[in-house]
Structures are given as structure tokens and as C-alpha cells.
Design brief:
CATH class: Alpha Beta
Largest sheet: 8 strands, mixed
Number of strands: 8
CATH architecture: Roll
Strand content: 35-45%
Number of domains: 1
Structural class: alpha+beta
């Protein structure tokens, strides 16, 4: 029995290495999952326009995505804003402007630093929305989202959105 013990240890070590190499998520995969979670959190459909219910859902989702003291730079906001609470309020009130809306962050590039503690997702984000009047709205902007790894979890700590060209009819 003692002769087999080293062989079992080697097989177990190889199995762990194979799992880590092929089945664990890379930092980039985790960040892309966070971006997909953000897309879903801000989506507005005809059935989810109740602001109170939406605010509760957005608050829960944003708690998993954003650092509490996130900073936000958006041209429509006169100053740089900060705080997840303010961001939740903005996202929760979106149904006042839109009947439906979705944001596509799928084309963002993700760069993780060599230490694996900071990352930036940047590129073109696209908002496709319908106003309450029925008019279609499409807005494409350059965005940059900085992520920090905090207590082992990737969180957005800074959001920057460029001024955009309004392609609405």
C-alpha cells in the first residue's frame, strides 16, 4: 500500500494542474462576466419599469459590481460624481426616460495588469433604447471602466464616458 501513495499524490497533483489550466476562469473572463452582469442590471424592458422594484434590484446588482466609492465621469453630469448610491439612483430612474433600453459592452477590450490587481475595460459601448413616444434612440460612446481586485473580487472603481454624437432620428 505504501508503494502506491506517491503515485496517488502525483495523479492528484496532475489533476489539480489540469483543472487550474483548463477549467478555472481567468481574470479577463471574470471581468467580462461582471460586464455582462452590468448589462443585465441596467436593461429596461416593458415589464420592469417600476422604479422602487428596479431600484432594489439595481442596488443588489451594483453591490456586486461597483466599489462603494466608485467615481463617475459622464459629460451630461456637470461634475464628476462619486458613490454607488448615486449611480443606483441614476440607473433606477432610467425608466422615466426610456420605455426599453439596453447597453452593449461586449466589444470592450480588457487589459489586466501584470500584478493581477488592476484592469481596464475600454472601447465602444452602445445604448439602444426606445423613448416613451416610440422613437428609437442609439448612442455610441467610448467608455473606460477601471477594475480593482478588492478582497479577491473584481470591482469597478472608476467609470469614464466620452461625449457622444446623438444618432436619434
Amino acid at each position: 500500500m505504501k508503494r502506491w501513495l506517491p503515485h496517488i499524490g502525483i495523479v492528484l497533483g496532475i489533476a489539480i494542474a489540469v483543472y487550474a489550466l483548463f477549467f478555472s476562469n481567468s481574470d479577463e473572463d471574470v471581468i467580462r462576466d461582471k460586464l455582462a452582469q452590468l448589462e443585465e442590471a441596467v436593461r429596461i424592458s416593458d415589464g420592469n419599469t417600476n422604479i422602487v422594484i428596479r431600484a432594489a434590484r439595481v442596488k443588489k446588482e451594483f453591490g456586486e459590481i461597483f466599489e462603494k466609492e466608485v467615481t463617475i465621469e459622464v459629460p451630461e453630469l456637470t461634475d464628476a460624481s462619486s458613490g454607488r448610491t448615486e449611480l443606483v439612483q441614476l440607473a433606477a430612474s432610467a425608466p422615466k426616460l426610456w420605455r426599453t433600453a439596453s447597453v452593449d459592452l461586449g466589444n470592450l477590450s480588457v487589459d489586466v495588469d501584470h500584478s493581477g490587481t488592476t484592469a481596464v475595460a475600454y472601447g465602444q459601448a452602445v445604448l439602444t433604447a426606445t423613448r416613451h413616444s416610440g422613437d428609437l434612440h442609439r448612442d455610441e460612446r467610448t467608455v473606460s471602466l477601471r477594475f480593482d481586485k478588492i478582497d479577491g473580487d473584481w470591482r469597478i472603481v472608476h467609470v469614464s464616458v466620452s461625449a457622444g454624437q446623438d444618432d436619434s432620428p
